[in-house]
Amino acid sequence: MRSIVKVVGVLFIVVALWAFVDTGFGMETSLLMGQFQVNAVHNLAHLALGIWGYASSRTDSASGHYSRWAGAVFLALGAMGFAMENPLDLMPIGGADRFLHLGVGLLLLSVGLVEASRPRASRRMR
Prior knowledge:
By secondary structure, the protein is mostly helical.
């Protein structure tokens, strides 16, 4: 599980930095890879989630907490994307983003819940 959380964290960091380079630091919505709506707030959120994920990958306990919490947040964002494209005109979450958020949320929450259901004795101690 820790390796999955580490990979997800690194991917979020890379995507956030790529989005800043590609679309700039403005609040206007731009398309990343021609599909995903981003702006500065969206990129900062991905950067923060990436740093949190990478830092959480150091222990099983922290990885589990990250997986469950970030997974729940991404599932909520994905669902919200169907109701509103850009809440409070701050962060675009509609379009293709909603499906990406639902997929990432499902992956993270599944990993976190599977880990939480394992008996403590079978978890790695580090």
